[in-house]
């Protein structure tokens, strides 16, 4: 991930099973957290198998335990759709970022494609609390982030986003 130039203090919210661990440079100081201890156990196993030092913690993206300005980069991959208050999580991302720090996101978003948006509505209705019609970009802009990269994929269902804190 070129956006994660080294060395950096990186926080990955909702690290889950640690699927992203192989993509970080060796000299990145990585902290990951998740709301699920079972997911963290899988991430710990993956980190051991990779020989990757990582600080994995139990926590909530809506109330990060870290002091202000603790990280150079915050990463979120397909997690804001499952966090009850995504705007609070984005606010927390900004709080823990250092000035000039980057937020790097890959998220499910409301598609501009009517057929895909209909499918998203069905998925949202059938899911256990996932929100596929959210717009993280709006939350980042409301928090004052400067958008550096914005791409839509999969009929507009997936958004790749990089922004920095002024």
What's the quick description here?
The protein contains 4 helices and 7 strands, in the order E-E-H-E-E-H-E-H-H-E-E.
Characterization of the model:
The protein has 4 helices and 7 strands, in the order ββαββαβααββ. With 166 residues, it is α/β, with parallel strands linked by helices. Strand 4 (71-77), helix 2 and strand 5 form a beta-alpha-beta unit. The longest helix has 14 residues, at 37-50.
**Form type:** globular
Rg result: 16 Å
* Tally of helical segments: 4
Describe the sheet with the most strands. 7 strands, mixed
SSE string, helices as H and strands as E? EEHEEHEHHEE
Structural class: alpha/beta
Mean pLDDT: 88
Order the strands across the largest sheet as they lie in space: 3-2-1-4-5-7-6
User: What percent of residues adopt helix (DSSP H or I)?
Assistant: 25-40%
As residue ranges, the low-confidence spans are 1-6
**Ends distance:** 22 Å
In oligomeric terms, what are we looking at? single chain
* Percent in strands: 25-35%
Number of strands: 7
Features:
166 residues, 27% helix, alpha/beta, globular, seven-stranded mixed β-sheet
What is the element layout, followed by pairings?
Elements: E1 9-13, E2 29-34, H1 37-50, E3 55-58, E4 71-77, H2 86-96, E5 97-108, H3 114-126, H4 136-142, E6 146-153, E7 158-164
Parallel strand pairs: 1-2, 1-4, 2-3, 4-5
Antiparallel strand pairs: 5-7, 6-7
């Amino acid at each position: 991930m070129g956006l994660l130039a080294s060395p950096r203090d990186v926080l990955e919210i909702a690290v889950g099973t640690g699927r992203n661990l192989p993509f970080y440079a060796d000299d990145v100081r990585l902290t990951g957290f998740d709301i699920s201890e079972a997911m963290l156990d899988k991430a710990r196993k993956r980190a051991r198998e990779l020989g990757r030092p990582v600080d994995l913690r139990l926590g909530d993206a809506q109330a990060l335990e870290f002091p202000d300005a603790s990280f150079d980069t915050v990463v979120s991959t397909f997690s804001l759709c499952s966090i009850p208050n995504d705007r609070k999580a984005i606010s927390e991302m900004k709080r823990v970022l250092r000035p000039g720090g980057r937020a790097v996101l890959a998220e499910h978003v409301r598609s501009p494609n009517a057929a895909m948006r209909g499918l998203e509505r069905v998925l949202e209705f059938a899911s256990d609390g996932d929100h596929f019609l959210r717009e993280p970009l709006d939350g980042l802009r409301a928090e004052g982030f400067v958008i550096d990269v914005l791409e839509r994929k999969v009929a507009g269902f997936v958004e790749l986003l990089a922004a920095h804190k002024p």
